[in-house]
Write a structure and sequence with these properties.
This protein has a domain of about 60 residues. It contains four helices and no strands. Helix 2 runs antiparallel to helix 3. The radius of gyration is 24 Å and the shape is elongated. The termini are far apart. The relative contact order is 0.07.
Length: about 100
């Protein structure tokens, strides 16, 4: 009896990957390419604006074009700040200690 129950339990095991497959496909087919495209576009804009900032700085002017684009680039790079939340939380607890 015990062997039959264990065998029945193992037959249900392959169902989880089958259920998760649509979510995995949606992420890698839809979300990941848009994320890469956004990184590419923002990276190009960041390079252009940093070049404009350098050109303006050589003429003696002051330009603040690239910092907002850098913030947007970091936001997209870290999945909306999701990956930095734990880092910031850990940094706050170390300061408190």
């Amino acid at each position: 009896m015990v062997v039959v129950a264990a065998a029945a339990h193992l037959t249900l095991l392959p169902i989880a990957p089958i259920i998760l497959l649509p979510f995995i496909l949606i992420f890698f087919v839809v979300v990941f390419p848009f994320w890469g495209l956004a990184l590419g576009v923002l990276g190009l804009l960041l390079l252009i604006t940093r070049g404009i900032d350098k050109l303006i700085a050589t003429t003696g002017g002051k330009s603040e074009i690239s910092p907002p684009i850098y913030k947007a680039f970091r936001w997209v790079l870290t999945f909306g700040g999701f990956t930095e939340k734990g880092w910031r939380r850990g940094k706050k607890t170390k300061k408190a200690a």
